[in-house]
């Protein structure tokens, strides 16, 4: 373990003595080839990979709009970083904190392999979070497996494969320390930075080791930047400098074999600059917390008690194609399966009770009003 300093940004490294990043012997681990020759890395959430059409696109910038009421965006960021550590991919983390190395101690560990998790994943998003419904569904899936040799079920049950594309992560269990040691992990602090030039240099040096090779396998890298426009950073009021940095980051990532995930508190930006940030994102997501004891929302949605937040998909990267990505639903519920792993599900409207006469008409009229929730 070594540390390097002497810059405006505090920087520490978990990398070995070797300076070059060498691809693993098994090829490009953790990279999947999708339609039109596009390459994807997993977001660390299997449901999100499926919704986005394969995961996070290599060479793209993913931006996540934070919610001021709850830090649920950190769940997505931690899963993204943990997935890269599991696949032994180079990782660069930047945060508005004194010692960003400590953030690595909060990364979740992969869920231990089991047939139950594999069968649940094979059931897809229609599977319920209720235990009894799951048991019934698993029995049905097992019966169908006798007659149909579907590849999805067989692949999901082989959870012992270390090179699988996407893992479930246990948010209650930290990542084992030995997985962090000896890997190409760099941590950068932006809390005391006056400008973003040093962070830009770090990103440039990081992606320079990850050239894109056409037709050949190479190591994929991940850049994770937390709260880029945090008010505690000294460059906070330099709006154009931050926009210039995002443009530069987008150009660097586009020509490399890496992907960048940037979270930012949109409420601290002016409307005009917030729109600029959103426009620069290749994939744009936003997180919103569930209000406590919202009786109206509890009546409107089924499974409201199990939800911890909403995830809204504003934009999806679509490379090498002029066909727009059409999502089944743009707003999804964020749940914790067995209180440990993240699950994204479509919103289901609760049935309206028609036995109450005029009150039912009032409730139906309320549910038909304009809403940000997409069913």
Tell me the radius of gyration. 22 Å
Structural class: alpha/beta
Biggest sheet, strands in spatial order?
1-2-10-7-11-12-6-13-14-15-16
Mean pLDDT, all residues: 76
Low-pLDDT segments? 1-8, 13-27, 115-136, 138-162, 359-370
Total separate domains: 1
Q: With helices defined by DSSP (H or I, 4 residues minimum), what is the helix count?
A: 11
Largest sheet: 11 strands, mixed
Question: For the record, what CATH class applies?
Answer: Alpha Beta
As for the CATH topology, it is Rossmann fold
Strand residues, percent: 15-25%
**Helical residues, percent:** 25-40%
How many runs of DSSP E, i.e. beta strands?
A: 16
The termini sit apart by 49 Å
What is the CATH superfamily label? Answer: P-loop containing nucleotide triphosphate hydrolases
Biased composition (Low complexity): 354-375
InterPro entries: Elongator_complex_protein_4, P-loop_NTPase
Family: Belongs to the ELP4 family.
Organism: Zea mays
Describe this structure in words.
Strands 1-2-10-7-11-12-6-13-14-15-16 form an 11-stranded mixed beta sheet, with helices on both faces. The chain has 11 helices and 16 strands. 37% of the residues are buried. With 375 residues, it is of the alpha/beta class. It has a single domain, classed as P-loop containing nucleotide triphosphate hydrolases (Rossmann fold, 3-Layer(aba) Sandwich). The protein has helices at 46-51, 73-86, 115-123, 131-147, 151-157, 177-180, 197-208, 239-254, 271-280, 295-300, 358-367, and strands at 2-4, 11-13, 31-33, 39-41, 56-57, 61-65, 91-95, 108-110, 169-174, 185-189, 221-225, 258-264, 283-289, 307-315, 331-337, 341-346. The longest helix is centred in the middle third of the chain and has 17 residues, at 131-147. Helix 3 (115-123) packs across helix 4, helix 3 runs antiparallel to helix 5 (151-157) and helix 8 (239-254) packs parallel to helix 9. Helices cover 30% and strands 21% of the residues.
């Amino acid at each position: 373990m070594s540390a390097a300093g002497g810059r405006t940004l505090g920087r520490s490294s978990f990398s070995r003595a070797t300076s070059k990043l060498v691809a693993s012997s098994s090829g490009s681990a953790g990279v999947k080839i999708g339609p039109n020759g596009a390459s994807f890395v997993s977001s660390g959430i299997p449901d999100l990979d499926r919704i986005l059409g394969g995961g996070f696109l290599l060479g793209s910038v993913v931006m996540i709009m934070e919610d001021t009421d709850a830090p649920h965006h950190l769940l997505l960021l931690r899963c993204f970083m943990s997935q890269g550590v599991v696949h032994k991919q180079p990782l660069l983390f930047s945060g508005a904190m004194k010692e960003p190395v400590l953030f690595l101690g909060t990364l979740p560990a992969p869920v231990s392999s089991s047939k139950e998790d594999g069968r649940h994943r094979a059931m897809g998003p229609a599977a319920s979070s209720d235990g009894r419904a799951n048991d019934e569904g698993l029995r049905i899936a097992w019966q169908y497996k006798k007659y149909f040799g579907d590849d999805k079920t067989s692949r999901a049950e082989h959870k012992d494969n270390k090179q699988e594309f996407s893992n479930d992560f246990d948010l209650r269990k930290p990542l084992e320390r030995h997985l962090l040691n000896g890997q190409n992990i760099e941590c950068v602090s932006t809390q005391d930075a006056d400008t973003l030039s040093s962070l830009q240099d770090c990103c440039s040096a990081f992606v320079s080791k990850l050239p894109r090779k056409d037709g050949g396998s190479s190591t994929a890298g991940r850049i994770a930047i937390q709260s880029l426009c945090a008010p505690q950073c000294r460059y906070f009021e330099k709006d154009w400098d931050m926009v210039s940095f995002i443009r530069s980051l987008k150009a660097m990532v586009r020509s490399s074999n890496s992907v960048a995930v940037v979270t930012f508190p949109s409420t601290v930006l002016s409307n005009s600059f917030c729109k600029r940030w959103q426009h620069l994102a290749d994939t744009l997501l936003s997180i919103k917390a569930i209000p406590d004891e919202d009786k109206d929302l509890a009546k409107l949605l089924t499974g409201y008690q199990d939800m911890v937040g909403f995830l809204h998909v504003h934009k999806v990267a679509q490379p090498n194609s002029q066909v727009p990505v059409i999502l089944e639903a743009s707003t999804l519920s964020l749940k914790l399966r067995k209180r440990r792993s993240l699950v994204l599900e479509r919103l289901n409207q609760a049935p309206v009770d028609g036995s109450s006469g005029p009150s039912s008409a009032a409730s139906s009229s309320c549910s038909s009003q304009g809403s940000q929730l997409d069913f």
